[in-house]
Description:
The structure is a homodimer.
Chain A: H1 10-20, E1 26-37, E2 42-51, E3 54-58, E4 63-68, E5 73-76, E6 78-83, H2 92-99, E7 104-109, H3 112-130, E8 136-141, H4 159-165, E9 171-177, H5 180-184, H6 188-199, E10 203-206, H7 213-221, E11 226-227, H8 233-240, E12 245-249, H9 257-260, E13 272-275, H10 281-287, H11 290-299, H12 304-311, H13 313-318, E14 335-338, E15 346-351, E16 354-358, E17 361-362, E18 396-402, E19 409-415, E20 417-419, E21 422-424, E22 431-437, E23 446-452, E24 459-463, E25 472-476, H14 479-492, E26 495-500, E27 503-509, H15 521-537, H16 549-552, E28 562-565, E29 568-571, E30 576-577
Parallel strand pairs in A: 1-4, 1-5, 6-7, 7-8, 8-9, 9-10, 10-11, 11-12, 12-13, 18-23
Antiparallel strand pairs in A: 1-2, 2-3, 5-14, 14-15, 15-16, 16-17, 18-19, 20-21, 22-23, 22-25, 24-25, 24-26, 26-27, 28-29, 29-30
Helix pairs in contact in A: 4-6, 11-12
Amino acid sequence: MKAYHICMNVRKLKKIIEVAGGKSPADLVIRNCRIVDPISQTVSEGSIGVYDGFIIGIGDYEGKRVVDGEGCFAVAGLIDSHVHIESSMCTPEAYGSLVVPMGTTCVIADPHEICNVRGVSGLRFMMNSSERTPLKVKFMIPSCVPATEFEDSGAVLDSEKIEELIGEPKILGLGEMMNSTGVINCNEEVLEKITSAINKSKIIDGHGPMLKGKSLNAYRVSGVLTDHECSTPEEVRDRLKRGMYVLLREGSAARNLANLLEAVNDGNSRRCAMCSDDKHPEDIIANGHINHNLKIAVREGVNVFSAIAMATINAAECYKLKNTGLIAPGYMADIVLFKDLKDFEAKMVFINGEPVAKDGKALFPLVNRVDKAVTHSVNIKPVTSSDLKIPLKKDMVRVIGLDKYSLNTVLQKRKVKIVQGCFEVSPEADIKKLFVIERHNATGKIGKALIENYGIRNGAIGTTIAHDSHNIIVSGDNDRDILAAIRELENAGGGITLVKDGTVIETLSLPIGGIMSDMDAFSVSKKMERMKKTAHEELNVSTDVDPFMTLSFLALPVIPSLKVTPRGLFDVDKFDFVPMEWEE
Amino acid sequence: MKAYHICMNVRKLKKIIEVAGGKSPADLVIRNCRIVDPISQTVSEGSIGVYDGFIIGIGDYEGKRVVDGEGCFAVAGLIDSHVHIESSMCTPEAYGSLVVPMGTTCVIADPHEICNVRGVSGLRFMMNSSERTPLKVKFMIPSCVPATEFEDSGAVLDSEKIEELIGEPKILGLGEMMNSTGVINCNEEVLEKITSAINKSKIIDGHGPMLKGKSLNAYRVSGVLTDHECSTPEEVRDRLKRGMYVLLREGSAARNLANLLEAVNDGNSRRCAMCSDDKHPEDIIANGHINHNLKIAVREGVNVFSAIAMATINAAECYKLKNTGLIAPGYMADIVLFKDLKDFEAKMVFINGEPVAKDGKALFPLVNRVDKAVTHSVNIKPVTSSDLKIPLKKDMVRVIGLDKYSLNTVLQKRKVKIVQGCFEVSPEADIKKLFVIERHNATGKIGKALIENYGIRNGAIGTTIAHDSHNIIVSGDNDRDILAAIRELENAGGGITLVKDGTVIETLSLPIGGIMSDMDAFSVSKKMERMKKTAHEELNVSTDVDPFMTLSFLALPVIPSLKVTPRGLFDVDKFDFVPMEWEE
C-alpha cells in the first residue's frame, strides 16, 4: 500500500504506459464520477483509470475491477499540511483509521509531543506506527525539543541529532521553528538546525505569530517557508507577500480559518494550504478533519476550486510531495468521492488506488501495536503529602486566573488563607492547588501554583498531557485526592484521571509516552466525553473551561500570562520565573 | 556571480538574518520602485534590500550602495522555460549579453543542436560558456540525439550516457522527449532514459504536438511534465487537465503565444510558463525575448499578474529553481526594473544582486572563449562535380515544394528535364538541386533532392545548420557554385555561405559545431540581415521564403511532407525513404 514513484524500472514503466494507452486493462476504473480539477477549474463527468497505484487517465478505460462512483465528486485526497497527531491522543495507526474515512489521505506530521517525551524513539515509534495505516504520513523533525529552556522535557533533539536525521527520505524537513526569537537573534544552536535543513534541501516550517516588519523578514530569510500561526488576515497577507506559504488552521483550540479567509483570494490562494495543527478525537468525529476546513471555506464564499486546491495540490507543491494532489494521469491514485461540494462528506476514499474507506468506515483493520520504547514513561520521585504543602511567607500572592474558553491565563493578585505557614483552600474563594511534577527523570522537581476559576471540589484531576514537556499536571482541592491522582497516573503509565473523595472514578490510560492511547479514536473520544461530563458534574469543574485541555496548557511557558513548570511559577510577560508571594 | 543557496553555514546565515532584521546594512538598496507581487497581485511602492545575492526584505533598509529605481516596476527576473540557445547562433555567453538587458535572468536550455554535432563535448561547452555570463543557464540533457533513426548526426546520447550525466546538479532533467511514438510504443532505449530521470527525481520535458486522448495519457504517465509544442488552445487545455505544465512559446518560426492565450485563465495560468524555444538573434534584437511574451500576453488581455507569474515564479516552480521567481525576502536578487507593464522595456537588471544591465546595455564584458572540442566540426569526404549529378531513370519525379512562410513542405509530382540520364535545371521551371552531405564522419553519404519555389539563380547557398543533425545542406542552380559553397563551408569549419558566379560573396562563419558564431549577437544579426538581403536581391531567392531557415529545416524528417537526409529522400507521411522517380 505504501508504494511511491521512487524506484522506477523499464518493465514497470512499460506496463503503466500500456495501460494508459488503452492497450491493456486498468486495475480499477472508478466510473460515473464528477471529476474536479482545481487547476483547470472544471468539473467533468467521466471515469478514472487506475493502475499500479497511479491514475493512468480519465476516459473510457477497461478495468479488471469497476467501482461505481454514484455521481459523486472526485477530488484528490486531502492533505493536512501541519498536524501533531498526538493531539488526537491516538497513534498514527488509529489516527489513520479516523481521518482516512473523512477523505484525508496524507498528513505532514510534526511529532513534537512524543519527541518531547522520548526523543528519537518517539519519532521512530510514529514512523513505524504510520507504516501500519494506508494514510500517508510524512514527517517534519521537531525543531524545538525542549520547547523552551524553562522546561524539563523527557528528551532533547539538538542540532547534531537533527543533522543526523534530516536527510532521511521520509523526513520532509524541520518542524515548526517556534523559537523565532532564537532565529532573529541568531542563536547558534538554532541556526545549526536550520543550516542542516537548508543544505539537505529540506523544508523549514515556521511558527511566527505576531512577527512583522523586519523581524518577519529576518525570520523568513533564515529559510522558513511556512507559517500556520496566523490569527489575522493581515498576518496572512504579510506572509504571502514574503513568498511564504500560509497553512490555514482549523484546530480544536485554534479555530482561525474563517477569520483568515478574508485575506485569501484566487490569486494568492496558490500559496495557502489547509491544516488542523491540534485536533482532538471528539472534535474530528463531530466535525470532520480537512473536509471540515473545506466546508468552512466554501461556506465563507471561497471559490470551491481554490478551496480544493488549498486542501490538495497546494500542500503537495509546498511539501514537494511527488505526483500528489491532482486527479490526472501520472498522479498517485489518492482519490476521495464526495457526495457534494458543500458538506464534503466522503462516500469513498482510495489511496494508491486501493479502496480504503466507504460511507465513513475504514476498510482496513486497526492493529495499534505498542512499542516498549515509548511506554513506561512516567518516572517520578515518590511524592508525599508534605510535598504538596505550599508554604507562604505572606498572604498576598500571584494566582493563575483561568480565562473563559481560552488557553491564555491572567495573572491575578489575591489574598489567600494561610494555616501553619502554608496555603489552605478556603470555601470563600475558588482558588485551588496546582502542581507540575517532573515525570521523565525522577528529579523530584515540583512546580507549585494556585489557580482560580477551575472550580474543582471534593477531588482532583491529573494528566500527563502537559504541553510541551508533558510532565504530570494535577489540580484539586485536597491533598489526599491530589496524591491519589498522581499515584494513579504513575500506575497507569500516564493518562488522564479523575479522583473523588479518595477514589479514582475513571482513568483514560495513555500508555504511549503518557500522551497517546492504545485504543481506537472512537473509544478514546467516548471515554473523554464521559470523563469531561464527570469532571463538570461530579467534580464541579467550571462549565466555561475544558477540564483537561485547560490543565494541559498551564505548563506551557510561551502563552500569556502566568504559567507553571516543574521549576516554578513563570511570568510569560516578564519571561522569567517569579515567586508566588506578591512583592510590594 | 554564480552563488546559489546550496551550501549554507551558520556564519553566512547569521549575517543574512542580521541584515534582514535591520541590524547591519544591506549591500544594496534599490529605492523608489513599484514592486510587483504576482502572488498577492499587488504593486507596492518601496525599496528592496539586497545582501549576499539575496533579497532580504522590502522596506526601509540602509544600504552600502543605493540605486534609484526611478519609479520603475520591479519584477522578478524573467525565465525562459525552454530554449535552444544554439538557434540564436550565439554561444551562451553571447546569448547572455543579448537577453539579460531585456530582463531575462534565467533560461532552461536544451542543447539539443550542439549535442547532435558533438555529444557530451557539446554539452560541456555550453555549460562552460554559460559560466562566463551572469545569465543563469540551467540544462536539460537532450533526450533525442540523434533526433530520428533516419539521420546521420555527429554524436549519439544513448541511455547509458544519460544515466551517467543526469544526476549532475546543473542538469535539471531530460530534454524534450520528441520521440513520443517511442514512448507510447514503449521503446526500451527511450524508457531507459526516462527511468534514469525519474529515479534521480529530475524533470522530463515533453514535446507532444497533436497528441490527445489515451496517447496523451500514455505519454504523460511516462513522467513527462511539460509541453511547449501546443499550437491550439485545445492542446493547452488537454495538457493542463493532465497535470502538465504548458510552456507557451513565442519563437521565430513558431509564434504560438497569442493563439494559445485563449485557453489560459487566472486559475490554470499557474501551470503555464513562457518560452522562446528557437529564436534568431535579429528577432530577439527587434522584438525582445521573454519580455516580448509578456508584452503579447498583456496586449491580449491576460491579467498582468498572471502574465508575470508565467514569466517568473511558475517556471521556477516547474523546474524546482530554488529561491527564484519572486521579489520577496529569501529569494535570489534577480530583479528587473521595467519602465511600464505594457511594453516591458527593461531599465535595469540585477542578477544575484549585481547590476548587470542598464538601458538595454549589458554591464558585463563578453569574453566568448571558443573550445577546440567543438570546433573543426566539418569533416567530409571530398565532393566532386560528379557527386552532384542526379541520375534519373524517368522524368516524372518527386520534388520538394516549398510552402510560403512555413517549415512544412509539399510533395510535388513534376516532370523534369533529363540530359545524359541526369536531371538538368531548366529555365522553364523553378526546380533546383538540393544536397544534404554528411559532414561529421566523412562517410561520403549525400542525399539528393529537387526543390521548387526556392528561386535561386546564378549561384548557390549552403549552410551547416540543418536540423537536427546539422549536416551540410546546399542548394543552387549550377554545380560549380554548389561545389564552391561546399568547399567554403568546409574551409570555414561550418557556417552559412552565399556563392554567385563561382565566387563566394559572403560567409557567416560558425566555427562552433558549425552552428554557433564566435561573435556577439549584434554582429551576427547584422551579418545575417545583410546576407538575407543579398540572397533575395542578388541570388533571386523567392521573397516568400527565408533563404536560410528554409534550407535548415529541409533535412528534418519529422515535419511534413517531403524531406531529405544524407540517406535520401524521406516521405514524412509514409515515414520512409522514397526514390526520386515517381512510381506509376
